[in-house]
Amino acid sequence: SQQGEEDPQALSIQEGENATMNCSYKTSINNLQWYRQNSGRGLVHLILIRSNEREKHSGRLRVTLDTSKKSSSLLITASRAADTASYFCATGNTGFQKLVFGTGTRLLVSP
Amino acid sequence: EAGVAQSPRYKIIEKRQSVAFWCNPISGHATLYWYQQILGQGPKLLIQFQNNGVVDDSQLPKDRFSAERLKGVDSTLKIQPAKLEDSAVYLCASSLGQGIGNTIYFGEGSWLTVV
Lengths: 111, 115
What we know:
Structural class of chain A: mainly beta
Helix content of chain B: under 10%
Order of helices and strands of chain A: EEEEEEEEEEE
Distance between the termini of chain A: 37 Å
Largest interface: A-B, 26 and 23 residues
Number of helices of chain B: 0
Order of helices and strands of chain B: EEEEEEEEEEE
Shape of chain A: globular
Distance between the termini of chain B: 37 Å
Radius of gyration of chain B: 13 Å
Oligomer: heterodimer
Shape of chain B: globular
């Protein structure tokens, strides 16, 4: 079963605006990862945040993790048309030793 | 560095026929995964190999799906007989190790349509 659930399911913004996607999960985790999937392509790893971290940055990406609320957010600043893709969170738990992917947020960035 | 290679990219078959997908992981990656991604959903793990041993196949429909990684490198995923609900993208992926802290590298996927 899928653990993470992204919100919103779809997001449409203009170039230059910021995009925020949220991920909620159900059980305790060791880390949480975000992946991007362009239409018709495989998934590409974006960033990993460990359960003892609260915030992480990578270029225009900012990820936060709130383990008390079992949620994470992905912020893409100054979005570009090339950011148009689906974004998935994936949670890792040492008990299961496997990543479980969420349902994804489809982001459309219009020029 | 070459990525994860998959073939064929697209396949259309009739229900009850069989199909096989092939995957070549990134060189040196011990862990290999097969995921199923139905349109509009996230990837679901079917099977995970560590070298040529199976680590997790709890969500693999074993009555019709089989997978092998005989020499600990390439892998094949077979579906026989196929059902309409097997229409999906089959993603192969690999990682250096099997821990959940490892980055997983995905191939482009094999798109299956069962008619």
